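Reply to dn_fold:

You asked what the input looked like. This is it:
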Amino acid sequence: MERKIIVVTAAYGHEYIAAMGGQQAVLPTIAAGGADGVEIRRELFTGDELQRLPALGDAIAAHGLMACYSAPETLFDDIGALNNRIPALLQEARQLKAHWLKLSLGHFHSDLSFSRLTDWLDSAGVALVVENDQTSGGRQAPMQRFQAACQVQKLPVSLTFDMANWLWLGESPEDAARYLAPAVSYIHVKAAVPHQDSWRAVPPDSDDPRWLALLQQLPDDVPRGIEFPLQGDDLVAVTRRYVQLLRET
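and this is what came back:
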């Protein structure tokens, strides 16, 4: 079966999305570029757009795309309790007809029971994936503890592996892949280069070959999301180039 490639709307830049009038405006570009799906970012919505999620879901389907939904929220809050906004976020994902909701981990404590979260997921009928972000909760150690707890408690939650976020935390992407790969169901593809006192996201076919090599450490049969900048005069051609690269690599 052909590997699925998803384009994260933020890859086109927040300013471009705003100038185009919202995320729905880039759906034709993503579809014409040959992608299989789109990742909708909650932080790019205006309040009014949040009231029209079913219409956006219909537009995504009309372009022949699958949807996933990313919210800039954590699974666990600052005191380690489940985020009470999760049911509302799952409902938004349902309105988009999204295959999954993506969150970051937050402050996870390994002695927690997941029974309430299981009930929420069963009721929503939407899968949940947890990503390594650029905060302390996104480090390898808590992500491993969370993965282990999911296995013990049989929680149907898998991981989104962001290839470059580890660098912002001073950790090795390759080491993280070695330990977390079995639990990964979605890959956020991006490379990064040093920039001032931090890092800057770039396409994975930059001068450093480590990024395409890193993909070989990760599951071959899970969707890959383009989260690096897509820029150029012909965005359909740029999108098509990277969709093809990630499909074939």
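The chain has one domain: 39-222.
Hope that clears it up.
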